[in-house]
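Before we proceed, please read the two lines closing this message. Let me know whether the structure tokens fit the sequence:

…
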Amino acid sequence: MALRISCNTQISTSPQAKVDSRSKKCLQNVKSIVNNVGLPSMSSSPLEALKRGNWVKLICGASFEDVVDIRNLSLVYTLAGVDCIDCAADASVVNAVNEGIEIARDIINLRRPWLMISVNDDKDLHFRKAEFDPEDCPADCSRPCVNVCPANAISFQENTAPEYSFDIQIPRDGVITERCYGCGRCFPVCPYDKIREVTYIRDATTTSDLMKSDDVDAIEIHTSGRQTTTFRELWTALGDSVKYMKLIAVSLPNGGDSTISTMNEIFSTMEPNLQSFNLWQLDGRPMSGDIGRGATKETIAFAVQMANARDRPPGFLQLAGGTNAHTVDGLKREGLFQTTIVTENSDYATSRTGSADSSQALIGGVAYGGYARKIVGKALRGMQSQHGVAACIEDHPQHLLLALEEALALVRPFKCR
């Protein structure tokens, strides 16, 4: 349910006074919405949200590194009540997330969401960039890559003639690297097959240093699930840095019948050094939530499979990959909003639930990525078209209000179902 709050005011005064008065009114409306919306996460901890099954995570993107957008997204979704913000394992990106969180908490007193960094143990779709030489593009090419890119990460000078001046310089032709998050939609549409895939693996030493800082609360390790050797190597390389984390997440695709055995192998690797809670991110259809209604079907099917599995290792379950505004209805249809009893008589169960017989949600939560960025991105693009690409959204409360409406329309149904 979208909230509709008008920013328009009728004041007979000078144009600048009208703008200032409207901005103050919109900022007050932002505060009023956050105060009145009644999200459980406004006072409860992220861990409590996982146990209750209404944890919501914002995925900025493991390869998305546009620090201006990341800062503004983090600010908006902190106000909307997310429990965690997942971002690239890069110091500048982490700083941008933290800045957005703290500005949101300056606007209104909120509990702080956890900050999670994402890394990979091997080649992974989330850790790649598109690349091509714009000089190689034929002059008569229709540029389909520009149209299919959901991140506005491909630009050509003749297609981007803004009527305003940018505050910072951006490459005008080709891939804007910091905005590309590796969705891959441009690869098959290039009529001349000019676009290349560039993959990378996050450095374990750099990641370990970030984990030991006060800025990071959780880590997510993306693994293919095809074999566990690379996971074991990365886990070993991270060493004692894992003890600084409040949550260890593992993101993996649906490997069919082999998924449970892979999860058990991974858990057996982690368990000797695991001093925090753990989570399994069920990556149904990676980076597709913004495509449409059907994109969420695969992650819901994955959740049904895992919820019914008897030999699944300990850990919260969280959906991702194709999640969007239709995910909640899909989970309801499958009866996945239930609680289950944790009865394992083990040190693990006791230390992580508080007792050896306690209830927790069957599905711990959901993560929204491409869809979450898309709906708020409309407000961000509108702001940037007027005020430049480096604009801070809190300085333009009219746009902040519009962005918050969109974010709440996504977050609230899962939080308050």
User: Anything to note?
Assistant: Residues 18 and 377 are 26 Å apart (CA to CA).
